[in-house]
User: What shape does this take?
Amino acid sequence: MLLRRLARPMFASWFVSQGLDALRHPGAHAQVVRDGLDSVRSRVPAAARSSAPAPLAKALDGGLSDKQLATAAQAHGAAMLVAGTMLAVGRAPRTAALALAGLTVPLVLVNLPIGGRGVLTAAEKKARKERLVRALSFAGGAVLAGVDLEGRPGVTWRVQHARTDRAALRAARATEAAKHVDG
Assistant: This one.
């Protein structure tokens, strides 16, 4: 459908631009990740952090360097860029859209307008809130794009109808076999 061919690239453009930005400027994204981890660290008790799996515990305890965070931000950006491009060109669009929905979850968590370094100013809270709403909106759109069947019946419908058709075929064969036995 023409509408999908136009809407998918327009929708994917935000993900592609965010992915490119993370690849080109990983330092800024690493700082956002650091702020998000600091926010989580302030809310998670030390006992829970120490019992977490080793990589997660290291991240929550501030054991990751800026270079490691920048690399993680670049990897996340590359994944968003690839999935966004796949959605835009129509290659496995449902899979790409669901991957984008999953890749947006960290953006939602990092942009929660609470916590961070000390107390946030009103402008910082407003900016985080706007980024949060934007990320939530795009995550919701990606989920919708991921479940779009393009007007074709879904797997559940196909399975149910295949079972009904198979039962009807068995009944017809049984009726036909009964005619030959009786006759």
Observations:
- The mean pLDDT is 86.
- The helical segments are 2-24, 26-43, 46-50, 54-60, 66-89, 93-110, 122-147, 155-182.
- The CA atoms of residues 149 and 183 lie 49 Å apart.
- The two ends are 55 Å apart (CA to CA).
